[in-house]
């Protein structure tokens, strides 16, 4: 049997994917998520499969680091978001959360959406009033609270209530005032909230008001120390331990406490005392011991006597915010960092040891030299070196402002959370989203109707964020066409098995331009082997080559959340297998896409996407493939090579492409349901795709999709199943 016939037999199952060209693996779609949406992904392009569908998606989050306006709110004169606290991931399958205090209560960010309510699932015969009773923690005013909750849930009568399973209770049902302090205590998983009228605690089910135990004080600061909660008020410093309160610091010159921070490294509490400076407390360790206080003032080196915020860094150093700058305690002495013609509003520390400073002129990120690897090594030697002037600081300072990310220069508060940073600005809540590395794996068994066990498709890839430079990606796409057993050229009884496969390796890069434009490029190298394992006397049917993809992605086209994509994929020279005079083009393809987020609510997200894929292979009069810069337009303008024009020609050209449309519905950022449709007249395919996904945590996602043939064709892909996994780290 001749090799040309062998190649035809091998490629018969693949003709439905890419007609008229070689290296069909270049056009094998990937990702169980997209394949559950009718194989539409050019304008979606928001996970690691963007390397295949549109590399321009690498320019945007969540694949790339980016700035986001998370919650718009006018805060020019006073902050709408007043305080922030975060719950870090407690385990592999948990999700991070952010709690934000506002001018009129609390909002919660569940890693995807802002929630102004707490959700309660009714059990058994429980009514709305029962859920409200637990939430408010009291019988007082219960009827009025229940009325408000029913109105919030649009429950108008008893019949409406009988159908309610999930009750949404507004956060500001109990705590309606401006939030002046907030703390999520990881050890007990409780939320502590301070207001001008006192202290509250939420245990995950209901609120506790400490008016009787603590009194009505304006709470300015909260910090945890093991099983203790320290409370700074306008009327003194208190500690909550074992269900009771004790006042501390009566010896301080002022009882107005502006801020607190606990140094776990040194087991010390630092207290910003309004009008008196910064106090340090070493709490007593036993009932027979005594608290030890010391007070730092201007003579000790702090900037002034009105510190407004405190933070402790990874080396145990203390940072205090003042109106005109920072005071830095090196554990040996106080240093000053002045900000000319500016006002400091807040200071915080991230997990990498960087200091974040919120001001009226943007945010500074300061990485002290002692927080770096080389700096830590030199820390022990710094004592004498500083005196001799032998050590020069290599501190890093980075300024973020309205010209390079923030929407407003006025920043009220700042909170690092994991690799992300949150900012309360004059325009609301903004987020610097530090993109995760994404690792994707995909598998599908091809053409199940043919029942060929070694006919399968594998894909793997990883994206690598590169800060403001964009995102880099690497990928491998592999297809096994199985084994073909044929008779030998001399003896018909001499059977020869040929293994056939193709592999494509790619490097992708995407970067962002102003006005929500993204540009992406992929460079791919491929190897196609149609006769591995055959006789050594025959020339092997193999080829090697390269191709390029170039794509653009426009976010918010004309209206918000509408994406437009345009990709020209597989730009490259033709290939040959055995005979150099017989060249085959690679599948040069135009890909156009649209995606729109129809619904974006706290618990639901609904997106639709559509792609049009048009392969543009074109031969000259001698039957040789035209180069890409001719084929990319001539195949569309004159698909029948008749030199004709008109509506009929345009229609025929349009119908030579593949139409993809799909939708995705995500509930609570946990479960995704997908539906898609694919129409390919040339490849004789009409298919409906079904898919679903599970987001087990912020880090891990599993996807599944399958095909149902709905046309009058052979339906060789009917029942084909796809499996995918996405891991973020």
Describe this structure in words.
This protein has 729 residues and is mostly beta strands. The chain is built from eleven helices and 44 strands. The protein has a 14-stranded antiparallel β-barrel. Strands 1-30-29-28 form a four-stranded antiparallel sheet, with no helix packed on it. α4 (128-136) packs across α5.
Helix content: 10-25%
Number of helices: 11
Biggest sheet overview? 14 strands, antiparallel, barrel
Structural class call reads: mainly beta
**What proportion of the residues form beta strands (DSSP E)?**
over 45%
Précis, in short:
The chain is mostly beta strands and 729 residues long. Residues 1-18 and 374-392 have low confidence and may be disordered.
Name its key features.
44 strands, mainly beta, 11 helices, disordered N terminus, single chain, 729 residues
Topology:
Blueprint lengths: L2 H9 L20 H4 L14 H4 L12 E7 L8 E7 L9 E6 L2 E5 L4 E2 L1 E5 L6 H9 L5 H11 L5 H5 L3 E5 L10 E5 L4 E6 L2 E5 L4 E3 L1 H4 L4 E7 L2 E6 L2 E6 L2 E5 L8 E7 L4 E6 L3 E6 L9 E5 L12 E4 L5 E5 L2 E5 L4 E5 L5 E6 L5 E5 L2 E6 L5 H7 L2 H7 L7 E5 L10 E7 L2 E6 L2 E6 L4 E8 L9 E11 L5 E17 L7 E19 L3 E16 L9 E13 L7 E10 L17 E12 L3 E12 L12 H10 L9 H8 L3 E10 L3 E10 L4 E11 L4 E10 L11 E8 L1
Helix pairs in contact: 4-5
């Amino acid at each position: 049997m001749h090799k040309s016939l062998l190649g035809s037999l091998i490629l018969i199952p693949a003709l439905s994917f890419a007609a008229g060209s070689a290296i069909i693996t270049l056009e094998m779609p990937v990702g169980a998520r997209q394949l559950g949406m009718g194989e539409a992904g050019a304008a979606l392009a928001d996970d690691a499969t963007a390397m295949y569908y549109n590399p321009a998606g690498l320019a945007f989050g969540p694949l790339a680091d980016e700035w986001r306006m998370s919650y718009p709110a006018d805060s020019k004169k006073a902050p709408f978001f007043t305080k922030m606290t975060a719950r870090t991931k407690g385990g592999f399958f948990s999700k991070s959360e952010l709690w934000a205090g506002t001018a009129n209560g609390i909002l919660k960010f569940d890693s995807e959406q802002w929630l102004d309510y707490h959700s309660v699932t009714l059990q058994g015969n429980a009514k709305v009033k029962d859920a409200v009773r637990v939430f408010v923690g009291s019988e007082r005013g219960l009827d009025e609270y229940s009325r408000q909750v029913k109105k919030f849930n649009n429950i108008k009568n008893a019949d409406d209530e009988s159908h309610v399973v999930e009750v949404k209770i507004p956060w500001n049902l109990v705590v309606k005032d401006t939030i002046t302090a907030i703390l999520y205590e990881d050890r007990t998983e409780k939320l502590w909230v301070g207001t001008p009228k006192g202290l509250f605690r939420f245990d995950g089910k209901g609120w506790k008001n400490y008016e009787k135990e603590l009194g009505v004080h304006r709470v300015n600061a909260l910090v945890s120390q093991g099983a203790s909660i320290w409370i700074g008020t306008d009327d003194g410093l208190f500690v909550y331990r074992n269900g009771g309160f004790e006042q501390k610091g009566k010896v301080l010159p002022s009882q107005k406490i502006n801020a607190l921070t606990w140094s776990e490294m040194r087991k010390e509490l630092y207290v910003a005392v309004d009008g008196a400076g910064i106090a340090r407390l070493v709490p007593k360790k036993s009932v027979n011991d005594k608290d030890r206080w010391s007070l730092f003032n201007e003579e000790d080196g702090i900037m002034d006597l009105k510190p407004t915020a405190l933070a402790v860094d990874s080396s145990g150093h203390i940072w205090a915010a003042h109106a005109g700058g920072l005071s830095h305690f090196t554990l040996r002495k106080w240093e000053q960092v002045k900000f000319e013609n500016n006002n400091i509003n807040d200071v915080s520390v991230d997990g990498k040891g960087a200091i974040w400073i919120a001001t009226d002129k943007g945010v500074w990120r300061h990485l002290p030299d002692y927080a770096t690897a080389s700096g830590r090594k030199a820390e022990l030697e710094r004592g004498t070196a500083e005196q001799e002037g032998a050590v020069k600081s290599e501190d890093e300072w980075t300024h973020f402002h309205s010209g390079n990310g923030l929407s407003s220069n006025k920043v009220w508060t700042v909170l690092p959370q994991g690799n992300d940073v949150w900012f309360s600005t004059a325009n609301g809540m903004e987020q610097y989203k530090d993109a995760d590395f994404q690792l994707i794996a995909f598998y599908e068994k091809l053409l199940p109707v043919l029942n060929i066990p070694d006919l399968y498709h594998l894909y793997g890839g990883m994206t690598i964020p590169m800060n403001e430079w964009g995102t880099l990606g690497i990928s491998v796409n592999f297809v096994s066409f199985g084994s073909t057993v044929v008779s030998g050229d001399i003896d018909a009884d001499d059977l020869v098995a040929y293994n056939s496969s193709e592999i494509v390796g790619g490097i992708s890069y995407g970067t962002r331009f102003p006005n929500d434009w993204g540009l992406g490029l992929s460079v791919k190298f491929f190897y196609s082997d149609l006769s591995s394992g055959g006789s050594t006397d025959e020339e092997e049917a193999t080829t090697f080559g390269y191709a390029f993809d170039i794509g653009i992605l426009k976010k918010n086209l004309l209206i918000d959340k509408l994406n437009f994509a345009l990709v020209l994929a597989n730009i490259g020279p033709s290939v040959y297998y055995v005979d150099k005079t017989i060249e085959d083009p690679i599948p040069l393809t135009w890909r156009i896409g649209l995606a729109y987020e129809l619904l974006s609510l706290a618990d639901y997200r609904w997106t639709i996407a559509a792609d049009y894929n048009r392969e543009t292979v074109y031969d000259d009069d001698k039957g040789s493939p035209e180069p890409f810069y001719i084929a990319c337009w001539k195949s569309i303008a004159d698909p029948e090579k008749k030199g004709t024009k008109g509506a009929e020609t345009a229609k025929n050209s349009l119908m030579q492409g593949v139409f993809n449309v799909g939708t995705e519905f995500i509930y609570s950022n946990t479960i995704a349901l997908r539906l898609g449709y694919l129409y390919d007249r040339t490849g004789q395919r009409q298919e409906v795709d079904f898919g679903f996904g599970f987001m087990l945590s912020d880090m891990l996602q599993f996807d599944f999709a399958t095909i149902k043939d709905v046309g009058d064709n052979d339906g060789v892909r009917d029942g084909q199943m796809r499996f995918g996994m996405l891991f973020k780290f």
